[in-house]
UniProtKB/TrEMBL annotation:
Belongs to the YjjX NTPase family. This is Probable inosine/xanthosine triphosphatase. It comes from Cecembia rubra. One of its GO terms (biological process) is nucleotide metabolic process. Pfam families: NTPase_I-T. It is an enzyme of class 3 (hydrolase). Its EC number is 3.6.1.73. The keyword Lipoprotein does not apply. Keywords: Hydrolase, Magnesium, Manganese, Metal-binding, Nucleotide metabolism, Nucleotide-binding. Substrate binds at E81, A82. Its cofactor is Mg(2+); Mn(2+). GO terms for molecular function: ITPase activity; metal ion binding; nucleotide binding.
């Protein structure tokens, strides 16, 4: 008779440390929520100021993904004692003449395994697009157009444009959860 392998109880009870490659409270909060959704156990989620290695306002899928990967990977280099490292990077791109916003999420574990996912996209209004095209970062453009301050550390463009129906935390949290799929299904992804 084959019995399932018994997990190390001490390993299951040990609090896992997750480092987010940003001090942005929304990115830290959505990461913590997604890990609690995906896994049982206790997690300590901390943010570090990590350079993305890309433009302040990443443009296109490739640069935005690279920023998320760099944040996770550089966080691992700075704090190698953690269990997971998470990078979240928001970007913009054009579809025809319209600009849309999105973010990439990259999660790396101690073994070097990588999970990744992208958020859904939403299109930006002309007033914001004009500022971004003039070189203004999306968060700053939101603040100018909507007469706010530091909105990217709160509800962000998605929260503002949906009148709070979709908060930035929830928007990112879903992508973090999707990036955790390979860690939930290790046998399928890391064999």
């Amino acid at each position: 008779m084959n019995f399932p392998k018994r997990k190390n109880i001490k390993e299951d009870l040990r609090q896992k440390l997750i480092i987010v490659g940003s001090k942005n409270p929304v990115k830290i909060s959505c990461t913590e929520a997604a890990f609690h959704q995906a896994f049982q156990g206790s997690f300590l989620v901390e943010g570090l100021n990590i350079n993305s290695g890309v433009s302040d306002q990443p443009y296109g899928d490739e640069e935005t993904y690279q920023g998320a990967f760099n944040r996770a990977n550089n966080a691992k280099l700075v704090f190698p004692e953690a269990d997971y490292w998470v990078g979240i990077e928001g970007g913009v791109d054009l579809v025809g003449s319209e600009m849309h916003a999105f973010a990439w999420v990259v999660v790396i574990d101690k073994m070097g395994n990588v999970g990744k996912a992208r958020t859904s996209t939403f299109f930006l209004p002309k007033a914001i697009v004009e500022l971004v095209e003039a070189g203004v970062e999306l968060g700053e453009a939101d603040d100018r157009v909507f007469q706010r301050s530091n909105s990217k550390q709160e509800d962000g463009a998605v929260g503002i444009l949906t009148n709070g129906a979709l908060e930035r935390k929830e928007y990112y949290q879903q992508a973090v959860l999707l990036a955790l799929i390979p860690f939930l299904q290790r046998d399928l992804y890391f064999n």
